[in-house]
Amino acid sequence: MTEPTAPDKKPFLYVVVCASGVAHDVGKLITAAQEANWDVGVVATPQGLRFIDAEAIEAQTGHPIRSAWRLPGEPRPLPPADAIAVAPATFNTINKWAAGISDTLALGILCEAYGMGIPTVALPCLNDAQAAHPAYRQSLDRLREMGVLIGSRGAPPSGAGSGADRFRWEEALELLETRMKQNGTPPGAPTRR
C-alpha cells in the first residue's frame, strides 16, 4: 500500500501509452490533465516509445518517461500513482493485462494497480477486425470486473485524415471524475486506498 499524497501536492496520474498511431497526440491528454490539477507522468510500452516524442513529453510533464524496470536500489523516477489512464490501449495490452501477464513495466504497473486499489481507465484503440476477436470481448469483461472503466473504442489511424483527431483523449479524465464521484472522492484529490 502506498502513502497518500500530501494535501499540498497535486494528485499524480500515470498515463500508460501503447503503440498506436494516435499515441503521438498524447500531449492532448497531458495538457487536459494538467489543466484539471493533475501532475502527470508517462509510462510507455517498449513499442509505444516509438510512437511518441519522448523529449517533448518529458519537457511537458517535467518527469522522465518510464518504459523499463529500474534496477534494485535505483530511485523511483515517478511518485506513486493516484490514478492511471491507459491511452491509447491496444489489443495486445488489453488482452495481456486481463490475463495478468506483466512482461513489460507498463503491464506490471497495470496488473498491480488492481491490488493497490488505484482507479484505472482505458481508452481502447484498435481496428474492427481486432475488436471482433472473442478474446478482446472477454478481456474487456474481465477488466470491467476488476473495476477498470473502459472508454469508447477509437480506431487506429490508417493515413492522413483517418480520424486520429477524433480520438477522445479527454474521456479518460471524464471517466476518472465519474469514478472519484462514485468513491466519494472530490475530483483532483488522491484516490488510493
Give the helices and strands, then pairings.
Layout: E1 12-17, H1 27-35, E2 39-44, H2 54-61, E3 83-89, H3 91-99, H4 105-116, E4 120-124, H5 128-131, H6 134-145, E5 149-150, H7 171-183
Parallel strand pairs: 1-2, 1-3, 3-4, 4-5
Helix pairs in contact: 3-4, 3-6
Please give a structural write-up:
InterPro entries: Flavin_trans-like, Flavoprotein. It holds the Pfam family Flavoprotein. It comes from Streptomyces thermogriseus. Residues 14-106 form the Flavoprotein domain. With 193 residues, this protein is an alpha/beta fold. It has helices at residues 27-35, 54-61, 91-99, 105-116, 128-131, 134-145, 171-183, and strands at 12-17, 39-44, 83-89, 120-124, 149-150. It has a 5-stranded parallel beta sheet with strand order 2-1-3-4-5, sandwiched between helices. Helix 1 links the parallel strand 1 (12-17) and strand 2 (39-44). The longest helix is centred in the last third of the chain and has 13 residues, at 171-183. The chain is globular, with a radius of gyration of 16 Å. It starts with 11 loop residues before the first strand and ends in a 10-residue tail after the last helix.
